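Supplementary Data S3. Sequence and structure tokens for construct A.
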Amino acid sequence: MKLYDKAFNTEGVLILASAEALKTYFSNNEFDYTFPKGILPLVLDKKVFAMVTEETVDKLTIYDERAEVEQCLSSGKWEDLKVKFYLTIESNDKLLLLSHADFTQICDWHKGEYTQHRLFDKKWILNGVSTGEYQIECVRKKHDGKCILLMSLAKLADNKQISHNSFSLPTVQAWYK
């Protein structure tokens, strides 16, 4: 099932974030504008996924399963640029899809409380995501000057545990260039 399928102005960084984690973390910590160092604790805790992109992703498609990403990779039409990451959503939490500007303002100006942002938009909430551990896989391609990003957000089996060793920080940091 498609969770999202349209253009998205990322302001240069695409962010998926746990709403509760932002509120909890930034109610006790100042926002650090040094990217990616400033959000590294949330990244390592699997509460935030951030990826440097073009200013605007002309087509962002997010699926709730891996099959579409795997099919596209096997077609050979995608760049040899693939990221795999893990994200945790707790009970009574929401997954937010944010641009860099909105993320920064929510975390700095509103201590992580997204509903207090003057431009709050219900479109920030990625519907169809329930409590659990998720594996994110992402590929991109550029075609005729347009950036197209395909992402899967696949829920892992409840009995599968993820450790911090499940992803490598150099891989994550490579996306921050």
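Construct B, processed identically:
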Amino acid sequence: MEIFCVVLGSILAILGQVLFNIFNNGKVQKHNTAMIYYDIQSILKYVKQYKSDKQDVVPNIRYHSEWQNMLLELNYLKSSQVLCIYDFYDAVYDYDCALEKGCGIKFLEELEKVAKREDFKQVMEEFEHKAKIRRG
């Protein structure tokens, strides 16, 4: 009887740990999805604001430095969707590098091109759905 109780207790402990990991993984994915979504929205806001204000000084775009690690946690994304987000952040990085040399405006246009692609819009809609983000 003692052995049965030990085995039963072990099984319940393992089952509890597995269920906890599944629940926690869902929360981490939702959090990372929201972080990337709002990071991208913030970047697009910088670009839109610059375009509408017609400023002489190009904006210094800030973005989350851990975006790659957060993106890797999102195992629901297809490889083409991951590449699309990489294209976006590559354009941001290119812009930042060009900004240091004083020629960032041309790379703002590249950033806008990526943001207007249909696959990018689909990824953003997927993020809204997964993170339960409500527009409006």
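The first helix runs from residue 2 to 53. The chain has five helices and no strands.
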